[in-house]
């Protein structure tokens, strides 16, 4: 309709406070990517590209025949989780893992463990990260939330669950009577990989001794894993987080001691997938119930 207004017209008379409120609402709904003003039919574009590619003559006689690329997919190979070669000057993975185990085992306090991480040069991720984002919280807390990898905002601010995801996480804690001041927060990988890439298996393995030592030093009684990476690393399950969330596991910490752990979605995933928040609320209620049963609530 001619009377329809675009977003620019709708916002032209808005005050600064109203514009900020609109942007905050967009962010909470998961709208965090700028796009063009006019709509594009990506399905039609990708189909046209696929038809053109199929009709084009193959000029390389040595190229493999019969290969078909799905419409819309890149012809570039998808990076594998484990990169073949370590960066130049990096410590070999087996030596780095041994060094990580030795450094973590030598730490007799949380302060010493953090200093060991600050001094540790066996993981090349620290070379491109802005800050170390490892752990925070009360030393006496009995509930621990374990995240995977620092987000972009976490890396900039040097703290866990920062930015919009952090605000959502704070509301999640508040809903069951908790705050950051009375829980532990810790990451599996304390440095953000360059470009937000997924950490490789060797990188994860090198960071794990520090997480395990953190568990030993803090002695939590209940653990909540946030996302697939911490869930798989701590529980040993290979189920996807969409299947494992809401389930309780037992995590071996040291000796014969085992801790109850519930798998939950990561706040960043919840922020970008609002429909999954109903599962988060169910998981939070299960965690609250466990806190009451164990006398921690």
What does this 3D model show about the protein?
This protein is an alpha/beta fold and 297 residues long. It has twelve helices and six strands. It has helices at 7-11, 16-28, 42-55, 93-106, 110-119, 152-157, 163-175, 201-218, 228-235, 241-244, 267-272, 277-293; strands spanning 135-137, 143-147, 184-187, 222-226, 248-252, 258-264. The termini are far apart. The model is unreliable at 1-6 and 58-85 (pLDDT under 50).
Radius of gyration: 23 Å
**What would CATH call the class of the domain at 93-292?**
Alpha Beta
Look at the structure and name the CATH superfamily of the domain at 93-292: Uracil-DNA glycosylase-like domain
| Distance N to C terminus | 57 Å
- Overall shape: it is globular
The succession of helices and strands, N to C, reads HHHHHEEHHEHEHHEEHH
What kind of sheet is the major sheet? 6 strands, mixed
In which range does the helix fraction lie? 40-55%
* Helix/strand structural class: alpha/beta
How does CATH name the architecture of the domain at 93-292? 3-Layer(aba) Sandwich
Strands across the major sheet, in which order?
1-3-2-4-6-5
Mean pLDDT: 82
Q: Counting H and I runs of at least 4 residues, what is the number of helices? A: 12
Which stretches are low in confidence, meaning pLDDT under 50 for 5 or more residues running? 1-6, 58-85
Number of strands: 6
| Fraction of residues in β-strands | 5-15%
Oligomer: single chain
